[in-house]
Amino acid sequence: MASKEDIQKKINEIEERMAAADFWNDKNKAQTDIKELQNLKDELEGVGKYDKGGAVVTIFSGAGGDDAEDFTRLLLEMYLKYFEKKGFKATVLNKNENDHGGFRNITLDVDGKNVYGTLKNESGVHRLVRISPFGSRGIRQTSFSMVEVIPKFEKADELEIPPDEIRIELSRSSGPGGQNVNKRETAVRAVHIPTNLAVHVETERSQAQNKEKALAMLSAKLYKLRDDERKAKEKGMYVSKTTANEWGSQIRSYVLHPYKLVKDHRTEYESHDPDSILGGNLDEFIEAEKNL
After folding, report:
1. Of 10, 94, 107, 283, which is least surrounded by CB within 10 A?
2. Exposed (0-12), middle (13-18) or buried (19+): which is 82, by Cβ within 10 Å?
C-alpha cells in the first residue's frame, strides 16, 4: 500500500500537468488524469476506490461448538436484515452448514453503493453470551464467531501477485448445478503461500470461472491485510496476520444473559436492546466505527 507521502506526490504531479496550457489537447488523457486525481484524493482522505463498491463477507464460527455455529447463523440473519434495509443485494458464494441450521462458515457476495466502505470495520471477532439452547441444563454459554469483510475485486489482476506465491487446489463442488457439475472437480481453493490466506469458491458452473473468482477474492484479502498493516503502522501499532477467534480478541459483545447489552469494545458504543441489533438495526454501531 502506498504511503500518504507517495499519494500526495502523485497528486502534485497530476495537478502540475493540469496547470499546463496543453493539458486539454489530449482529452482522453486529461479525463484519465482527472479521474486518477479524484481517486488519489479520496484515498488520501481515507476513502480508497474500493470503499464505493461491493464486498465479500465471510462469517466463521469459532470456540463454542454448536452454540458458535448457531451464533454464526444469528450474525448472518442480522447482516441480511441490515443489507435489506440498506438496499444491498447478497448472494451466497460458499457455505458449510451443520445439522441444526447453524453454520461453520458462510461467504456472501454483497453488491450495492458504498458496501465495502460501510461494512469494512465490521471485520473482527464477535462474542455472544446467553443461555445455551443446546441441552437442558440451562447453562450460560460464551461463543465466538469471526466476521471478515474484504472489498469486491472484479478481476484477479487488480492486485498483482507473483504466480509462484499462489497454490491452486481442486475438489468436487458440493453446491447446486446438477450431477454433471458434481462429477467434475469444479471447486477451487486458492492459497497465498507467504501469508497462508486462502479462499474457496464453488458456486460457478466451470472450474475456470471458480478459479477467476477465487483469485480475485484472494487478491482482495491480500489488499485488506496490507491496508490494515499500513493503517496500523501509521498509528504505531502491530497487526497480526491471524486473529484468534476466541476470548480476548473480540471487537463486539452481544450479552443476552444475565443482562442485555451489545457493546463495541473499540468505540465503547453500546445498546441495551440486543434484539433490535440482531434484528439488523446496526446503523448507530457502524456510524460510530467511522472514526476508527
Report:
1. 283
2. buried
Task: State if pTM tops 0.85.
Answer: no
Structural domain boundaries in the chain = 4-47, 50-153+244-291, 156-234
Q: Which residue is listed with cell 461494512?
A: 119
26: Cβ contacts below 8 Å, ≥ 6 apart? none
Q: pLDDT tens digits, residue range 12-38? A: 999 999 999 999 999 899 999 998 888
Per-residue b or e along 25-59, where b marks 16 or more CB atoms closer than 10 Å to that residue's CB: eeeeeeeebeeebebbeebeeeebbbbebbbbbbb
What cell was used for 81?
Answer: 436484515
CATH architecture of the domain 50-153+244-291 equals 2-Layer Sandwich (3.30)
Q: Which three cell numbers mark 223?
A: 489488499
Helix axes 4-18, 27-44, angle to 10 degrees: 150
CATH topology of domain 156-234: Double Stranded RNA Binding Domain (3.30.160)
